[in-house]
Amino acid sequence: MNSSARSSAPMRGIDHLAFVTDDLPTTMDFYTRVLQMRLVHVRRVPFEQDRGQPPYDNLRHYFFDMGHDQLLAFFEYPTGLARQNRDLPGGMQHVAFHVEPERFDALLAHVRGAGVDVIGPVALGGRFWSAYFYDPNGIRLEFATSRGPRQDGVVDSVLQSEDEARAELGTLFADPARVEFWLGQMPLREHADAS
Question: Which fold has domain 14-79?
Answer without folding.
Answer: 2,3-Dihydroxybiphenyl 1,2-Dioxygenase; domain 1 (3.10.180)
